[in-house]
Amino acid sequence: MTTQYNYTTIAAWSLAISKALKAAGVEPEPLLASVGLALGQLTESPEDRIPIEHMTRLWEVAENATNNPAFGLDVAKQVTPMHFRSLGLLFISCNTLAQAFQKLADYYTLVSDSGLIRLDRRPDQIGFIIEPLKGVEVSPLAIDAFFATVLQLSNQFVAQSGLVVSVSLKRSKPKPSKPWANFFNCPVQFEHEVNCLWLHRGLLENTSILGDPQSAAQNEAVVRNYLTAMNALSWSERVKRAIHSVLLSGESNLSTVASVFNLSDRTLSRYLKEEGTSFRQLLQEKQNELAHYYLIKTALPVNEIAHKLGFSDTSNFNRAFLRWNQCRPLEYRSRQQ
Questions:
Q1: Which of 48, 203, 315, 327 has a CA positioned 20 to 30 A from the CA of residue 110?
Q2: Quick one: the chain helix, strand, coil %, rounded to 5?
Q3: Alpha-carbon distance 66 to 47, whole Å?
Q4: CA trace torsion 105, 111, 116, 122 (10° rounding)
Q5: Co-location of 168 and 268 in the same domain
Q6: Mean pLDDT over all residues of the chain?
Q7: Could you tell me which Pfam families the record lists for this protein (predicted)?
Q8: What region, left, alpha or beta, does residue 215 occupy, with left being phi > 0 and alpha being psi -120 to 50 degrees?
């Protein structure tokens, strides 16, 4: 059995990277080819999906080619709503920025399904939080670019400064760090525990956009159809991503995952039952998927892998892996070498 890692990013996002490379005087075609991508194909099919490992590698080679750790901020300057495809059109047809941000949080998997996006509402601020899935490598430049793009789009509708209150990033502090402070025009904290864009709630809720209900409904239908084809709207897929996020933090239980969606245990269990599955089944599928990843991609000893995947001891992990794959973890690792 091979690992089922299949997290992806929409191809249109790589086109913005290509435009930023050209603006920096770097030809994008050779860099794209070096990571297994072709500019012509991406241009013809911008709604196709790119494996996240290819995109992460593209960010790496782009940073090296430009010698610019703030390259993600430059990419945002090249992004238009169409780089988000129908989600971008939905964003600009909402009534307010607050509603637009909620749509981004609802349908972010159209852009990439390699993480979780959620909103943290406080009396005077709204936090736009990105949580990459643990064990899935996502470039810090991708986080920079997403936050910067959200600000670029929002600034088209905000008539005053001060929309972004502060920014926190998990990435290591770059040298120099001034480009981030200049771009967001607010304090930026690096090496933080969470990636969060903190926004002025009053400005979000009071800033009108186009407010075209008919266009918004049409665009949302297109978004939902796209995500349905990806199976990204099913509760099974949502729960699997949430399990991935919380599992490696040691919280692999139904209550923790249900809280991610502000649901009760019973309600989430019912939704999964309606789709013919259960939390236990999805947990085991995700544990198996991550087990393959760690056994193939890392040199971690089996006892550490067992701990990361929420098993109380190595014996339980060995028995579970044998049941799932008809061989023991070390046997599987040796076969892949």
A1: 203
A2: 60, 10, 30
A3: 27
A4: -30
A5: no
A6: 91
A7: Arabinose_bd, HTH_18
A8: alpha
Contact 9/114 with Cβ under 8 angstroms? yes
Helix axes 52-66, 140-155, angle to 10 degrees: 80
Number of structural domains in the chain:
2
Q: Dump pLDDT digits (tens) for 5-44.
A: 478 999 999 999 999 999 999 999 999 999 999 999 999 9
Give the span between the Cα atoms of 247 and 134, in whole angstroms: 9
One domain for residues 192 and 300: no
User: For residue range 244-302, what is the model confidence (pLDDT) as tens digits?
Assistant: 888 866 677 899 999 888 889 999 999 999 999 999 999 999 999 889 888 988 889 99
Q: Do 267 and 144 reside in the same domain of the chain? A: no
Residue type, 33: A
Residue 192 sits in the same domain as residue 258: no
Strands (DSSP E) contained in 195-302 are: 195-200
- Beta strand 164-168 with 188-189 is parallel
**Three-state SS for 36?**
coil
